[in-house]
Each structure stands twice: as C-alpha cells, then as structure tokens.
Write a structure and sequence with these properties.
Length: 269
C-alpha cells in the first residue's frame, strides 16, 4: 500500500490517512470497503474558493427569503397593469395639453387628416378615445399637429415627441404588445415624423417596418403573409373588418413608399 499524494474527499473530511494501492486510478481502502466513490480532494485554494461561493449563494438565498416574507405588495393582474399604463399615458398628456385643447386638436385631425393620409377614422368624442385608445390619441395629438397648434413651448413640444416615442417603444419592444391601435399609432408617428433638438428618436422607415411586422402578426395582412408561430395567439379576432383592412392598406402604401425612397426592394410582395 502507498500513501496518496492527495487524500480523497471522504478521508479529507474525516481527517484520516488515505491509503491507496500503487495502481493508478484505484480507490482507497476505506472507500472500497464502504462502497464509496473515491474522488481526490480539491487543492486547498480551490476548496477555499468553493466554500466562499457556497457561502455567497446561501447568503443570497437568505436575502431573497427575507425579502419575500417582508413583501406585502399584492400581485396585480394583467388588466390592472394595462389600466395603470393607460393612466400614466393620459396623466402625461393632460399635464402638457389641456383637455379642451385636446378636443380641438382631435377635431382638427378628423377634419383635415383624411385628405392627407386616411389611415384611421377616430371618434371625435374625446372621452371615448381616451378610454379605448389612449396611446393612439397621444400619437395623434403629438405628431399630426404643429407646435404652434398645440400651444406648447419648444421644450414641452420636444418632451412630448421624445416621451411618445419612448412609450411606443415600451409597448411594442419592451412589453411586446400587439394591437390594431398600436399599428395605427406607429403609422401616425411615421407619416408625421418629427425630430427633437436632442437627436432622432427613430426614423420613419424603422417605424413603418415595425407597423408592418405587427400588422402581419395580427393577421390583417391576408393569408399570403403568415405570422411566425410565436405570434399565433396575437391574431386579431376580426382581421377582415373595414378598420383592419384600411390599416393594412396604409401599412402597405407606407412600406412601398419607403422602399421607393430608399431604393430597396419591397419586403412585402
């Protein structure tokens, strides 16, 4: 019998001599006798590092357990989260454009936008569109009218443009939301594209592509353009409604115009 250069894990734990045969790879006597796996112990520095990591993991587990036990915040349902998001959008808008002014701008959009870009037909009832389509209302009031018509100063106007694009990005990219309202809001932002003094928020070409991709995922682009399997459950219930068909036609016209402008092939046949 010969003494191993490094004791196995079991012998090291019990702090006893680890005897192993001279043949390489054999188990020590104690592990053989007790039918145990004979694994050479790790070097001291490595064992110290392992112990340190295990202590850190345990500390994190304890911290998470304490946080969970002390957290009394009730879990909110998806509908309450959506209502909260809509409330934030309207609060942001109301703090910068008065309610009466919002009604005037909405009527102006309905009376003049149809001749320029008949994307959507919105209700002229401000209360109704605030409840049903707050993000679309925000896009219309920020993008489709000038700063002078809004009655805002330059700083407020720039803030409206930046925050509206941020909110659209939050809904579309961060939260992965898909709806006809969002497609329409993106088309409004693309057609009446605005830039702030602090740089571009997104190009009209990028916004159009987002709107087209979302429209395909919603199933309003027809049977020839099928969405990815991941978007199957996002399909619009009434994909052939007049509003859906008008929205898709607007997407197609916008994408075709972008392709001509950029001298690139249209991605949608």
């Amino acid at each position: 019998m010969g003494k191993r250069n490094r004791a196995c894990e079991e012998c090291h734990r019990l702090k006893i001599k680890c005897d192993v045969s001279t043949s390489s790879g054999k188990a020590c006597e104690r592990c053989t006798r007790n039918d145990l796996e004979c694994v050479p112990a790790a070097p001291r520095l490595q064992r110290d590092r392992i112990n340190q990591l295990e202590a850190q993991v345990q500390e994190l587990k304890n911290a998470l357990s304490d946080r969970s036990s002390n957290d009394t915040t009730p879990t909110r349902s998806p509908s309450s989260l959506l209502e909260n998001q809509d409330g934030m959008i309207l609060s942001f808008l109301d703090a910068r454009i008065p309610f009466q002014k919002q009604q005037q701008l909405l009527c102006h959009f309905g009376q003049h936008a149809d001749t320029a870009w008949p994307i959507i037909r919105v209700s002229m009832n401000l209360d109704q569109i605030r409840v049903r389509s707050p993000i679309l209302l925000l896009s219309i009031l920020v993008y489709s009218v000038s700063q002078d018509m809004q009655g805002t100063d330059l700083e407020t106007h720039d803030e409206l443009v930046r925050e509206t694009m941020r909110m659209l990005g939050e809904e579309v990219i961060a939260r992965g939301q898909k709806s006809l309202e969002l497609v329409q809001a993106l088309l409004v932002a693309a057609f009446w594209s605005k830039y702030t003094r602090k740089g571009e928020q997104a190009s009209c070409y990028q916004i159009v592509q987002l709107a087209v991709d979302m429209a395909i995922d919603l199933g309003i682009a027809g049977f020839s353009l099928q969405p990815s399997p991941a978007a199957y459950f996002c399909r619009l219930e009434d994909a052939t409604s007049l509003e859906a068909r008008r929205t898709w036609l607007s997407c197609y016209v916008a994408l075709s115009t972008s392709s001509v402008s950029m001298r690139r092939p249209n991605t949608v046949p």
